[in-house]
């Protein structure tokens, strides 16, 4: 937790540690190559499990990130933006992957790169796009098909920011605990601070030490 510092989403630090312990205990210290075994590790979701299986172990699976989902929505479904993530994204990608493992890995990577570089969420650059003649959205004249993506919540003043303020106080004092009254100076909104502390305790990112709080050992 101390090393993770301001890298964001501190739960990932816990998950990373838990996954390392699980790999040691269940897989003799070797990262498994099987998607189901990878999915069973703490903090590993659809994207990470398949990305490891494909790019580290050379297996054939669909790897779908936000950029890929946008490319699939435009080229195959003629939609400006993808809908909410679903199993259908994996099925759609699987259906267009070449049979050979190595070729499938290239197509997975290419779709992600295309979405990251040319097929941007706003103002896609279609002229140099290798899919311009096969893109359903472009062929339809770029219709406005709506946008159901969830908006990112503001960070300033959010509970997330309050959680970050609490963790900063505890990180600066670690490994020592911090008395609760000192933690309460970390954030101006007392109710929000209590909410932040409660959620950090529930997530295992903070532990009680008598009447004080500290980072987990
Ligand atoms: S032609 Fe344009 S909209 Fe279609 S995939 Fe390429 S960059 Fe995206």
Question: What report would you give on this structure?
Answer:
By secondary structure, the protein is mostly helical. It folds into three domains: 11-44, no CATH class; 45-151, Endonuclease Iii, domain 2, CATH 1.10.1670.10; 159-214, Orthogonal Bundle (Arc Repressor Mutant, subunit A), CATH 1.10.10. The protein is 49% helix and 4% strand. The protein is built from ten helices and three strands; from the N terminus they run ααααααααβααββ. The protein has helices at residues 11-27, 35-39, 46-56, 66-75, 87-96, 101-117, 136-139, 159-173, 180-183, 190-203; strands at 178-179, 207-209, 212-214. A three-stranded antiparallel beta sheet has the order 1-3-2. A hairpin with a 2-residue loop joins strand 2 and strand 3 (212-214). Helix 8 (159-173) packs across helix 10 (190-203). It is flat, with a radius of gyration of 22 Å. The model has no long low-confidence stretch (mean pLDDT 93). Bound molecules: iron/sulfur cluster.
Assign the structural class, choosing from mainly alpha, mainly beta, alpha/beta, alpha+beta, or little secondary structure.
mainly alpha
Could you list the spans in which at least 5 consecutive residues all have pLDDT below 50? none
Tell me the radius of gyration.
22 Å
Strand order of the largest sheet: 1-3-2
Can you tell me the CATH architecture of the largest domain? Orthogonal Bundle
CATH superfamily of the largest domain: Helix-hairpin-Helix base-excision DNA repair enzymes (C-terminal)
Distance between the termini: 9 Å
Helix fraction, binned, reads: 40-55%
Most strands sheet: 3 strands, antiparallel
Q: What name does CATH use for the topology of the largest domain?
A: Endonuclease Iii, domain 2
* H-E order: HHHHHHHHEHHEE
Shape: flat
Give the percentage of residues in beta strands.
under 5%
What's the total helix number? 10
